[in-house]
Amino acid sequence: MRIRGLWAEGWRNLEPLALVPGAHLSVLFGDNGQGKTNVLEAAYYLAALRSFRTTHAEDLIRRGEPAGRARLRAEVEHRGLERRFEIELGPTGRQARLDGKSVRGTAAALGAVSVVLFVPEDLLLSRAAPAARRRFLDLAIFNVERSYYDEASAFQKVLRNRNALLRQGSSDPALLDTYDEELARTGARVVMRRRALVTALEPRFADHFRALHGDLPVSLVYRSDPDVEAAADEAELELALVRGLSSRRAIDVRRRFTGFGPQVDDLEIGFSGALARSHASQGQLRSLMLALKLAELTHVEARLGDPPVLLLDDVPSELDPVRRGLLFEVISKLDCQTLISVTEREIVPALSDRCDFFVRAGKVVAHP
Ligand SMILES: Nc1ncnc2c1ncn2[C@@H]1O[C@H](COP(=O)(O)OP(=O)(O)OP(=O)(O)O)[C@@H](O)[C@H]1O
Ligand SMILES: [Mg+2]
Predict the structure, then answer these.
(1) 219: Cβ below 6 Å to ligand 1?
(2) Where residue 359 falls among pLDDT bands split at 50, 70, 90?
């Protein structure tokens, strides 16, 4: 996939933006606080319909913008097809249009643009809270499985409702039975999807890690409750989840929240037969996380039949020269369009037809 053009108006601190990125590597450089990440955030928003920095749409709209509105537009080419995708954020919410036609619902609007985002925090994922790793998995699935958005939302909705009931101190058995069944049904789907992703990522993860660090054994395991892990298919999963929920119900009622299910699962990263986060060195952990991110990138490429657009926010500056070199080797081999933000543009290698853009006070200008 290639972004042919990216436009933004009323977005963060950006002056009206009309960016024609290079087919391969584009480097956005400039001092801190000038708007580099804001450009990547605009591209990311068009792909994910959310920001990676805020959950409040007001933050995204330029302060003092008279109309209180932001507009984004991307023209993308995917397997020979050209499409135009637009989003408007404003006081009345969000509207999306694909080739001029209005698109309703988040699930339908996802996938017009495909990106893989890599931010410095990703390098710390193995030591982050489990929620961050579940989020990594879920976002990687949304990227290739559009229907997963509705599936995951359905699960979250039942979970919220069950937790709201528990918070009120209610232990109504009939109502909880209904919630448990729904939670098990929607939860089984979520677990199936996450397991499938982890299975697909693991060999890629191992290959990338080998290229970085040599032949040390690594593993990726999707961790659930042992009874849930023993379930082989979706029907068995549903049964294991419903049983687990019912046997732990008294605890949930006492604690007033749901402590069992996919919302407490984790992605376990193994290294040399132990847990990476407690056994790998800092440098090894960074290589592991870089390998995981590259696995996501090559997985999305394989599933879409076309590499996604890669957005690297400040990542090259966080990597040592060896790891940086490997990252760029993979990028150029995959031939994926890449947008990078850095303060020091010298650290990005001169790959073929690299385009540089200088960013200052929200203005983005091509730099020869
Ligand atoms: N809604 C908004 N309206 C106007 N300006 C905003 C808005 N949100 C953020 N900004 C401004 O955008 C600038 C930050 O931009 P950005 O995060 O893209 O910087 P950057 O170039 O990536 O910097 P760094 O190198 O430090 O990461 C800040 O000056 C901030 O005040
Ligand atoms: Mg930045």
Answers:
(1) no
(2) very high
Q: Which atom of ligand 1 is nearest to the CA of 64?
A: 3
Predicted confidence (pLDDT) per residue in 172-215, tens digit: 999 999 999 999 999 999 999 999 999 999 999 999 999 888 88
**Using one digit for the tens of pLDDT, what is the confidence trace for 134-175?**
999 999 999 899 899 999 999 999 999 999 999 999 889 999
Q: Is the CB of 51 under 6 A from ligand 1?
A: no
Q: How many residues appear in the chain?
A: 368
- Domain 1-114+309-368 annotated CATH 3.40.50.300: yes
Ligand 2 centre to CA of 32 (Å) is: 7
Which string of DSSP letters, residue by residue, matches 257-298? S--SSGGG-EEEEEETTEEHHHHS-HHHHHHHHHHHHHHHHH
Which numbered atom of ligand 1 lies nearest the CA of 343? 25
Q: Residue 294 Cα, ligand 1 centroid: separation in angstroms?
A: 27
What is the whole-number distance in angstroms between the Cα of residue 235 and the centre of ligand 2? 45
DSSP one-letter string for 157-181 = HHHHHHHHHHHTT---HHHHHHHHH
Domain ranges of the chain: 1-114+309-368
Q: Which atom of ligand 1 is nearest to the CA of 38?
A: 18
Question: pLDDT tens digits for 21-30?
Answer: 999 999 999 9
Distance CA 130, CA 135 (A): 9
CB 115 within 8 A of CB 44: yes
